[in-house]
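The records we work with from here on pair a chain with its fold. These numbers are not coordinates but entries in a learned vocabulary of local backbone shapes. To see the layout at work, look at the sequence and tokens printed below.
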Amino acid sequence: MSIPKEPRQLMINVMYLVLTALLALNVSAEIFNAFEMVDKGLVKANDALDAANKDLPESIKDSAKKSATLAKYAERVDQVGVISKEGSDFIDEIKNFLVEQTGGYETVEGKEQLKGLRDYDATTRLLVNAGKGEELKGKMIEIKDKFLALVDEGKDRDDFAAKLPINIDDETWKKSTNKKASWSDFTFGHMPLGACMPIFSKFANDVKSSEAAVLNYLAGKVGLTDDVVLNKFRVVSAPKKSYVIKGEKFETDVFLSAAADNSSNTGIRISVNGAALPLDAEGAAKWSQTANDVGIKKYEAVASVTNPVTGETNQYKQTFEYEVGERSVTISASKMNVFYLGVDNPVEVSAAGVPSAQIKVSMTGGNISRNGDGTYTVQATGAQGTKAVVTVSAPGMSGSKEFRIKRIPDPVPLLGGKERGGKIGNGTFKGYSSLIPILDNFDFEAKCNLAGFTLVRVAKRQDPEFAPNRGARIEGQAAGLQGKANPGDKYIFQDIKCKCPGDGADRNLGQLVFDIQ
């Protein structure tokens, strides 16, 4: 550009250059490091997909030889790789073109990086104004259509289209409050080159994932996933109990961990200690043996699997054991060998051959009481990390057992009891009125109460806004901040505090992060 002679215009131009420099500096090195980490992760994932897709085409072709009707699927295999390469090469051409136009690479502090890492003028000019971004969009749609053409018409193709990883969102930009002119402007406009590279890698990942999806579809059509179950199995024994009293009968179910049922096309035979066993409708065999003397008893289970396609038979062996003992006292927690603070912990106590009325139970580290059905309930009183001891005595025998005392595990905070964070529509986000702590996979009846949190709104080119909130319900200043949600905003629920039964003080559950769409 020519240098203006008018002082006022010269000052305006200088101010524009300064502002441009400030905007470029506004993106911190940490952010670009994060972009680089994401890009490297996607590149590794793409390499893994290439390795996974490498041998499948030949396997599909070989499997298709067993029937003339399957030949049409084998004929499509080579086209999958050609389409995938076409998409990947196109993406690489755009990436290389941008890198070349922005100066290539340079070495900074011993590390090679893009020379135009922070250049957003070139990306906007080439991807948006010059139309390269729209070319990419068109190519991705073209590649998706070519992949779908390899899937049988009708329900197969309709179902497959919804699952195919390649997806161009051509609606969100039209609804954006930023008034973007096109999909490419919404995706790449004023984006620095360092932030665009992971986007290209993501599109490459979509292409390779779509390649894998189509290959797996063709594999299913020629019987690689339907006729042959798996080529790795493990023999499993599921005894009714692993400790039996002398004179009782030890009983167990023996089966293959990967076997679906006895109607599978894969032939399965099971034997224990050399004796063949019949299979039930679920593909399991039952084996029993009377316990005549005490000690550790071992038995060997063998499963033979015949591949219906190749006729090959493989054997899988596993040795198991159980213990036979005399009459004794047994103490067991109904849930696990842990007593949780603040909840009722069910315990089962028995002394083999002794009436329950003659059994006496006591404990340290808590209080234990007997229930009407003969079980017991423990309320732990010790501190986190200490141990409780339950002692049982009966005529001619006694015993005790240690249990760990733990506090209830941390609940998971969910927005509206549903959302764990990530991308969310602004209308959906505004519709939730509370943050609810959920105890996932906890077997006891317990409820934790949310004490409060701080809601943070981070809008583009604006300072973060903070709003403290007491309790689970989003109210007052926090509710007002929630109502300002617009696409492109980031919301953080941080310093989430809650109190669970048995807690002496609030515990910190960390934070939830939402990207508003």
Summary: The longest strand covers residues 313-325. The two ends are 38 Å apart (CA to CA).
